[in-house]
């Protein structure tokens, strides 16, 4: 009974913290301009199934892809077991599904254990890759202490959680021999290898270890679920909507600005001024998160900080300050800072800071060649380029702060209809030489 | 050379099969003007009924848009669309991936709907239909050529194979760089970088890319974009290899193989 009450309290606390975070994240994404489009649902669904569900883009790098696949499948499948945990916890039962599923229960448990071991080994390998082999993209300058720690915490936690499952199953199997409360599962291949460690212990100690491992695992999972909302691991959920709402035009397409179209049409006399009352122009381009498309903001929360984008970025590769991963991380940090301030009753967006300048500098955005390498590389279809281009629009149109050579280029286009200083009447001279 | 303008043709009551959009680089850049003329010589040799806009053409607005000046971009776009729609243009071919991308992907939202083809695809079609006949064992036989993917053709528009098909028709030895197709490294000129000095860094992007191209041992670096042309040519000069290694547009290579120029 005490266990049941404790369980309900734990579950309620987890649900409370998670829902508070989820609502904060939703509000943050909602700060942006609504760009959630649902046209061409077949294409979008296909993208989601291939890229998020099917991990298609991960397979550009085969070994990490396989290991990541283990963790991903393990995560999904082992969560089925959590369902049993929750029912047991609420009802005070133990392995409630075992009697109903009979021999099949043991098969399921063996599958879970296989995945638990696969997850465990993959995480160990990933820790080695990050911290000992020091794969370059995990050590670039935007990978400061916290992002590196975040990744390690996650990997370490997963290892511990998997060990808890195996310990629990090992002690459980010993207890099955004497205690009728412990339903028979049949031999569990991996955890039975651990049984010799616990064999000689008294039943009371075994009971304690089994219970401890059970609680450790379930609290661990719930704590993990709360933690995920603060971490780059949010991609495990957001990869799905993010791939669904990702841009489906060719990558070369830049989003149109209908406000500008109205203005230009009026200037050219293509539209009589009385017809359409010009929409409140607002800010041209983006200075802060609320000027960005909401899909970009969701992208920032979906970013796994894997750095595949930055590893392909020609500007970054040649030593420029620009890193597309940092663009996404900065956007997210800005959202989190604004939310923290609002939660404390602070000024939020009006805190005197802005995404442009205080987080992302002009030097960074000016270095971008709009080559789309980052967009192509991202395993969850995030588009850092979109943010860069929106920031540039703000700098050019609201601040007239573009680099001077760009301003001369603008001038040339305006007066000579070409980006260079040539007379428009000479445009056809190539046919004469 | 015979280059009919759309205005002349229209006044004669004729319509071209296709309008050749020359672009600013194709019109003004000395190096790329040679590409423009090569392409025209191919069109003439094949007997394609084409026209250019001549002095009626203006910048598509691509560099302005990428640098952030949407207002200027849309002014340019609207003006161009008015001219193109005024002539009832249906089909456009261009040798510039930036013009191609803008005309194809960005003009429709502003009222300009055309079938837009990049010259690499156009040339591929001419070769496949037999309108351009390549003789085996031509002057390129056995020569090492590497193709540098233009970002605005490749990743931006998924055109990877057409330029390669054109090069293969030369019967040359096509060698790939490690970073090619979807992972092709930019030449450094896109996103209006062409019109400013690069930001501070360790190295220039075009030098990094040129080193990779030279590393293949190719004596010809084939490109399909005026900005790539400039960047790669500068890179080759930077490495002082311009005597042995040539940077050429795919249209120039075809024209050469056909003995057209
Ligand atoms: S589009 Fe810009 S940020 Fe992305 S890889 Fe290319 S240069 Fe880097
Ligand atoms: S944007 Fe995509 S590729 Fe870049 S770090 Fe984030 S998840 Fe990785």
UniProtKB/TrEMBL annotation, chain A:
<keyword id="KW-0560">Oxidoreductase</keyword>
<dbReference type="InterPro" id="IPR017900">
    <property type="entry name" value="4Fe4S_Fe_S_CS"/>
</dbReference>
<keyword id="KW-0004">4Fe-4S</keyword>
<keyword id="KW-0479">Metal-binding</keyword>
<feature type="domain" description="4Fe-4S ferredoxin-type">
    <location>
        <begin position="358"/>
        <end position="390"/>
    </location>
</feature>
<keyword id="KW-0411">Iron-sulfur</keyword>
<dbReference type="GO" id="GO:0005886">
    <property type="term" value="C:plasma membrane"/>
</dbReference>
<feature type="transmembrane region" description="Helical">
    <location>
        <begin position="6"/>
        <end position="23"/>
    </location>
</feature>
<dbReference type="InterPro" id="IPR051460">
    <property type="entry name" value="HdrC_iron-sulfur_subunit"/>
</dbReference>
<feature type="transmembrane region" description="Helical">
    <location>
        <begin position="214"/>
        <end position="230"/>
    </location>
</feature>
<dbReference type="GO" id="GO:0051539">
    <property type="term" value="F:4 iron, 4 sulfur cluster binding"/>
</dbReference>
<feature type="transmembrane region" description="Helical">
    <location>
        <begin position="188"/>
        <end position="209"/>
    </location>
</feature>
<dbReference type="GO" id="GO:0046872">
    <property type="term" value="F:metal ion binding"/>
</dbReference>
<keyword id="KW-1133">Transmembrane helix</keyword>
<feature type="transmembrane region" description="Helical">
    <location>
        <begin position="149"/>
        <end position="168"/>
    </location>
</feature>
<dbReference type="Pfam" id="PF13187">
    <property type="entry name" value="Fer4_9"/>
</dbReference>
<keyword id="KW-0812">Transmembrane</keyword>
<keyword id="KW-0408">Iron</keyword>
<feature type="transmembrane region" description="Helical">
    <location>
        <begin position="107"/>
        <end position="128"/>
    </location>
</feature>
<dbReference type="InterPro" id="IPR017896">
    <property type="entry name" value="4Fe4S_Fe-S-bd"/>
</dbReference>
<dbReference type="GO" id="GO:0016491">
    <property type="term" value="F:oxidoreductase activity"/>
</dbReference>
<dbReference type="InterPro" id="IPR036197">
    <property type="entry name" value="NarG-like_sf"/>
</dbReference>
TrEMBL record, chain B:
<dbReference type="GO" id="GO:0005886">
    <property type="term" value="C:plasma membrane"/>
</dbReference>
<keyword id="KW-0408">Iron</keyword>
<dbReference type="GO" id="GO:0016491">
    <property type="term" value="F:oxidoreductase activity"/>
</dbReference>
<keyword id="KW-0560">Oxidoreductase</keyword>
<dbReference type="GO" id="GO:0051539">
    <property type="term" value="F:4 iron, 4 sulfur cluster binding"/>
</dbReference>
<dbReference type="GO" id="GO:0046872">
    <property type="term" value="F:metal ion binding"/>
</dbReference>
<feature type="domain" description="Cysteine-rich">
    <location>
        <begin position="145"/>
        <end position="232"/>
    </location>
</feature>
<protein>
    <submittedName>
        <fullName>(Fe-S)-binding protein</fullName>
    </submittedName>
</protein>
<dbReference type="InterPro" id="IPR051460">
    <property type="entry name" value="HdrC_iron-sulfur_subunit"/>
</dbReference>
<keyword id="KW-0004">4Fe-4S</keyword>
<feature type="domain" description="Cysteine-rich">
    <location>
        <begin position="18"/>
        <end position="104"/>
    </location>
</feature>
<keyword id="KW-0479">Metal-binding</keyword>
<dbReference type="InterPro" id="IPR004017">
    <property type="entry name" value="Cys_rich_dom"/>
</dbReference>
<dbReference type="Pfam" id="PF02754">
    <property type="entry name" value="CCG"/>
</dbReference>
<keyword id="KW-0411">Iron-sulfur</keyword>
